[in-house]
Specification:
The protein is of the alpha/beta class and about 450 residues long. It has helices spanning about 20-35, 55-70, 80-90, 120-135, 155-175, 195-200, 230-235, 265-275, 295-300, 315-325, 345-360, 365-370, 395-410, 435-450, and strands spanning about 10-15, 45-50, 70-75, 95-100, 105-115, 150, 180-185, 205-210, 240-245, 250-255, 260, 285-290, 305-310, 330, 335-340, 375-385, 415-420, 425-430. The radius of gyration is 22 Å and the shape is globular. About 50% of the residues are buried.
Amino acid sequence: MRKYFGTDGIRRIANTELTPELVYKVAKAGAYVLSKHMDHAPIILIGRDTRISGTLIESAMVAGFLSYGANVKLLGVLPTPAVAYLTRKLNADASVVISASHNTYEFNGIKYFSNKGMKIPDALEEEIEEIMESGKLDELTAVADKIGTSEYALDLVDEYVYFFRKNFDDEIDKYNKDDFIVGLDTANGATYKVAEKVFNVLGIKYKIINNNPNGVNINDKCGSTHLEGLKKFVIENKLSLGVAYDGDGDRCLAIDEKGNEIDGDKLLAIISQSLRKKGKLNKDTIVATVMSNLGLNKYTRDNGLELIQTKVGDRYVLEEMLKEGFNLGGEQSGHVILLDYNPTGDGILTSLMLIKTILEENKTASELGEEIKLYPQILVNAKVNSDKKYDYQENKEIKDAIEKLEKEFAGNGRVVIRASGTEPLVRVMIEGENQEYITKKAEEMAKLIQEKLK
């Protein structure tokens, strides 16, 4: 069992659990592991979201890197996919994103990216932990002229904006309409400036909300985890579409002009058909996770597409895509990976692909969304002791209850129970035909798990 890294890097309460001392160690060990085979001082990029703890964590991170002898470029507030893109574009040796993604402001986190702009694999995270625990950190100290240096590189955001202009300008311009207006919700997070830059340069009309971060309002009743405000905003302003990003900008969910949600499964279906019509959907396949709705299974089957499912986590989706040569994958939560553009989920990119498809097809967002029918689904979180969250697999009473539930829904639904990789939670997901009934069953199961794993 890993001590620090979860399914999406390290994520903890800032300054009490994710302390500057811990961050310093993570930085120093990470710099060593990611650059130990190099013959030059590594160059590492650092981006962050808008959390109040961001500069604190950044400072400790910089100190760790410089102490090892790495050189640092500080990108400032920038979405996770922008950091991933710039890592490849600038041929940097590695990069770090300081963010807790969709979590509330008191959390923060650390995500490492390789020189290919991809989240590092589990094996490298485990190696970083080994170095941190081995007592070897003092040996990794640069001296004299080997100490690293840092510099601000805030203007590199323009490279990311140009990436969108290069890939979308002609097509958006060809099909754009004067009455097509998009509502943007940036979750008071990492996209709060760059999203406007991108939409302005592409000439897409928009109205924006939740783009005034103050350090503590990131994801606060806004963004992709809280769509109620955007839904109201779209309907009241009679907008063509609403787009919501999460705190670090690697997720996107949408609201159609009628106020209906377009989740990650629907986004994958809509984008897959657009790519397929142009002969650009590799092997006519979508990669998703086991949390995908049964409706996506049915959609792909009925439309002659293949659906491959992985365990939960966009890193595992990406691994499967790379292994088999697929170029479209993602998660229900709005992580969509378009591998022809960027090797990580990119909220702005996903929204532009949706917008381009709506304009090219000359259909409304609701018309495209109705092409995939989703089964009722409920997700209930059981709050448990962090040290016991995997014990549901061993507890006899919980195991028996899960087996009984799985038998009940076999053939007419689905039960998925898993421990969160980032929080002290066990997630209970049930799909079935009756929303009220599956909600009752999920709440009963979550209550049992919560009581037994306090």
